[in-house]
Amino acid sequence: MTLKLVGSFPVQPDRVWCAAPHPHLPLVATASTDRAVRIYSLRDFSLVSTIEGGHKRSIRSISWKPNAKGESVLATGSFDSSTGIWHREERGTDANGEQSPESNSEEREEDEEWRFAVVLDGHDSEVKSVAWSAGGSFLATCSRDKTVWIWEDMGNENYETIAVLQDHSQDVKMVAWHPEEELLASSSYDDTVRLYKEDTDDWVCCAVLAGHTSTVWSISFESNGHQSRLASASDDQTVKIWYRKPKADEEEAPKQPPSIIKGTADETENWEEQSTLPKVHTRTIYSVDWSKKTGLIATAGGDGQIIVYKEVYTEKDGEVANVDSEASKEWKVVAQVPAAHGVYEINSVTWCPKWDKQGTKTDGELLLSTGDDGIVNIFEFSA
After folding, report:
1. Which CATH architecture has domain 19-303?
2. Which regions are annotated as WD repeats (predicted)?
């Protein structure tokens, strides 16, 4: 199995923090230290547009809104403590925002200009991460000010703050939503991952995942429709897999007395550490991404390496162990790219659909890496 470099986007003048593929168009947005968002085409890896003028400092994080009707909506989180919402109308899309077969892909990519529609203020320090919920109703942001904010899209470019969560004791590095439900995760400099969900009219912390011994930089949910798992990557050079125990597994446990803390009695979830991936990285792991298509996990960080892991069934004496048992599975390294950005650190890795030059999605999958060298590299994984 190999991870082959198949191209790069045009070089940027400064560090690239992250990349985010569009929900349904062959486009990728990147966030950069030079205060610009660049949109690239996945058909030919060319630069489509550059979005500037909305922020005063580095743009640290970006997220596309899913299910946007007839337009593209992009959220940007900046070191200037603000979050920006950008809009662009999309010709050639149907009522659900999907591509119309008769419309030209290149025209869709180079359509209308981007408009800086909304500024969301409230954080007291750098915004480190922004993420839309799966349904597109909520936007989560987190900051160096130790808080996680949840904003609700009320329509007509109006956003309301519905929660300010202050459960972390240190800088919050990342927020990520569960792909099938309104469950939010955050990772922090306090070495923990916290999970939140709505309890009546309030959002509450429903689980704390403590197992790392240093800063948790990145988190990514699995998406397979039948179980909930989360990967976390840390400054302690490990990647851990956490899973939510089904309620049926908790029925035999002794009942705990009701908590005096609002929301913790009925809303508490039981998440446990399931495994630690084989340790390969020699420095901080800045990014982890769990492929929704293949189930592969990719990681990258300060040592300049990209590692790809695959979950496989264990074998004993040439035979596969009991396939019905979770204990019979293990994670193995299936691809490793040293010095993927030369001597530079890698800030993020992101799985991305593959498109042909006509703008049609194919069966393949790409992996994008962003680095301090201002480059976004494009890799293809093959068995």
Report:
1. 7 Propeller (2.130)
2. 52-86, 120-152, 165-197, 209-242
